[in-house]
Fold:
Amino acid sequence: MFIAILGRQPKIGTAEIEAVYGANAVTELADDILEVETDFLDISHLGGTKKAGLVFARTPRDQNAILSAILKHLTELNVDGKTTLGLSAYHLPFTAANLQKIGMRLKVELKKQGKSLRLVPNSEPALSTATSHHNKLGLSPNKIEIFLIGQKGKVVLATSTGAQNITAYAARDQKRPKRDAFVGMLPPKLAQIIVNLAVQQTVSERTKIRVLDPFCGTGVVLQEALLMGHCVYGTDLNPKMIDYSRENLNWLLAGPVARSAPKNFCHTEVDKTFLGAAPPRATRSSSFNLDVGDATKFKWQKPIGAVASEVYLGQPFSAPPSDAKLAEVRRICRAITVEFLTNLAPQIKSGTLVCLAVPAWRTKYGFTRLDILDTISKLGYNIQQFKHATQQDLLYCRDSQVVGRELLVLKRS
Structure:
């Protein structure tokens, strides 16, 4: 049983996990923590999950019981050499000082066994993703992070299998040779989520399919789909964007970024079988095609296995627009999206999944959305419903942004 500790917008991460692993595999321990029944949870390709872990015990909410269970677990691991240990508490009345005391008691007990322990200091009850990542916790036998999660009067204990590789995300985002602020800076984490919502495959069942992005821009969605091992096909109305995508994808395939996803380390015999099965990576043999084309009219090459895209978001705003300006932009964005879906429908097979990031705008009254949901069925699609998240939850936006993104997951009827 795996633990997923979710990111800044946990319901979006929940929908992603549900799409990949199935609704019945998911149990919500808290708003931001899931228990996932799966053989392997692939954090390197989950944009909405900050940390992953493997459950090893459930104890009463008693520090002595917790200490005993953790000590037993560390002893059974039988790690050679010095061990680095981090402790992170979630939904428990523990302070950073409480955790350091538990850590010091563990250090004393392990020293009696002739084992050396280095503690990662806590400034907060839970280590940040950056701290876990930079200490490489969960990625080797002697670099360990243990999660203590409060749930219904009990404590769930789990050993980390890795944190998000923020170094690799930053490289893919900031070191690409071509970026364009005007068309929008789609974060790689969000691009991963869009691909996962469109493809809906676990790492163990993943097969290479052809992922289409009809509004590919500088190629962020394409790069994340490539890194998952898929063939990708991108089109864009602007020839400059196609040139940018081509340069970015060639850079990705030629450089070390494509090899930056870590191998997740798991502690049980069952999960050790995955040590040699690193997540699929982009290679020179990976396939991509790019064409200049208007998504409202273009005839795409077949086959199309899934569609993952950020559609036209309209012009960027640094402050909420006037009601008249918003109405104009909203009308244009809606028309383009409807025309695109109308054009796409006869070109894909029944059952094909489509995930689109469509615009939503922050106003003084809250967010205004594209108002397209009532039209979807008339265009030949069904909206995918999630058990653990609602459509209202699937709004991605930072506090400083005026233009957000609503995620629509559709299936061709």
